User: Fold these one by one.
Assistant:
Number 1:
Amino acid sequence: MNRKQSSTLALTLICLILGFMMAINFRTQQDVELTTGVRDTELRSKVIELVNKNENLETHISELERLLNEYRTKSVSGESTAEILTQELDQIRHLAGLTDVKGQGVVVTINDATSESNQYEDPNLFIVHDEDLLNVVNVLKAAGAEAISVNGLRIVAQSEISCAGPVILVNQTRLAPPYVVSAIGDMRNLESSLNMRGGIVEKLRFWGIEIEVDVLEDVFVPSYKGKIDFKFLQPVKEGE
């Protein structure tokens, strides 16, 4: 082997060793980066979890501080704790639909079609069904109605509207047409939601169902008179 060949072989060996060392170094760095990345992800998740918990605590603290300031303000003005709690209870009853209320809104009167169907038409298409009444109530809710009643029966979270043969059940009470739906809220929003093109009023009138929408400054909605019974619902204690 001459000198030139020896130099070439030595250079080749050096390059191989250098390449091997660089490969090992790259693999080591890659493993470290991968481990660090996994660790960073875990830490990031922990940080996000702690931030969320902290935000929830801050919200809860803010609410408690608001109530405390309210109690202090009313206490200074001469109101007792019992009076403050009574006011809060009245507000809860009001929101739950357990009190009579009034305000601007709409009154919707719905009745079966008066025109007779021919022998080839299904007569059930021309009478008011429970789903028709339910659709009217849902449209009013979506339009921001704050209180709704059907034939004097208050609609609350536990209310049901279902079919019972020739009549409709609302709050376990049998109702027959005409059906009068009273709703309190922004009367223009309620009216426009009912009378919108392709809306519930237009659909019912297509089948001859009689439906009228009256916009009034003073609508009365009575309180819920039924029984509220929770069989499965249980309150969650603070911290659970």
Number 2:
Amino acid sequence: MLEQTFIDVTVEDAINKGLEIMNVSESQVKIEVLNPGKKGIFGIGRQNAEVKLSIIDPEVKREKTSIPIINESSDNNRVDMSEEIAPEEDIDTKSNRKQESVELVKDYVMQIVAAMGYEASAEIFYKNNSEVIINISSAEASRIIGKRGQVLNSLQVLAQNYFNQLEKGFTTITLDIENYREKRRETLQNLALNMSKKAIATGKPVKFEPMPNYERKIMHQMLAKIENIETYSEGREPHRYLVIRAR
């Protein structure tokens, strides 16, 4: 595994910094919190958070190939197939194991939410072979989401890290509640389009407020479709921000 340690104000900031520097997604790394950090009192005793990100090696499947042994003493030169091909793990078995791991992750998230003092339930949806969505339902949705999704994002990091400990391979765990992810995506896309028009009209760069790596990525992808606009990020986490500029 390729491992790197990152330090920042909060655990989430340190993780986002690591993901951007290593150019990977959460599903591609195992995350270990070395130090959760401390806020301190009036700045006294404050400690930054420290995390270690380890890139998960792709699962290497080794097939045991059999070599037919010719029995020379036989008149018919019959082939001895005493060495058989080692059977691969059944596809259904892998699928069932993955589903069991996802169920464990869902239960893990629900335990954390309950410990926060909120009643909630969750359903699992398999978007495709590489992405699983755990959709949470709760009367306290706004509190579980947090300001600009900070609480939900932190829960998602924990869920992804737990899943990576259970399973090999690349699978993204996405936590959602009341369709927040799609609403946030639409908000960011509309904001990006509006600000791109401003950049073209004024001829001046437009700078956004700091936002997480994956949100900047949504805006980068949206504006990549516009020919006379370019985007780039500036600053360091957790204060890294997006800039739109007319070409």
